[in-house]
Amino acid sequence: MRSMLRKSSLIGFFFLLTKLTFSQLGDGKIDIPNLKVRKSGPYVGVQRGKYWMGELGAEFQWKQVKLASATTQSIHTGFNYDFQQNILGYNLGYWIKPSRLGLTYGGNLIFRSDFSQNRVGFAPVIGYKLFGFHLQTGYNFLTHSNSFKNTNTFFVSLRFILINQRDIKIDR
Question: What is the pLDDT of residue 153?
Answer without folding.
Answer: 94
